[in-house]
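Team,

Forwarding the record for the chain on the shared tracking sheet. I've put the sequence and predicted structure together so nobody has to dig through attachments.
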Amino acid sequence: QVQLVESGGELVQAGGSLRLSCAASGRTFGIYALGWSLGWFRQAPGKEREFVAAITWSAGNTYYADSVKGRFAISRDNAKNTVFLQMNSLKPEDTAVYYCAASMSRVVFTTTSGYHYWGQGTQVTVSS
């Protein structure tokens, strides 16, 4: 089992920035040795959970949803078993619960079905 714990969500004004963190623990062997990928999703009230960004742990290749491209950046810290999501130029429509997820695959998926482990989520609220 892999445990994922997100942090960093809070209330911020439009145009501001936040950095979310996702710490992985447990059987993280696969993340490094098998080249799993980790992603960020978000879910706003009344909406489906949507893909935000993903990163392949071994090569560090990154992928983004069109809605966040140029504003958000995903990165990883191998030593700390942590994935980050730097969010800049935040908009009210970015308001959602943000979830970290791990996929036991080298292929990056942009759908929830491709991910096997999930964190509990962290709330991001952007005020106008």
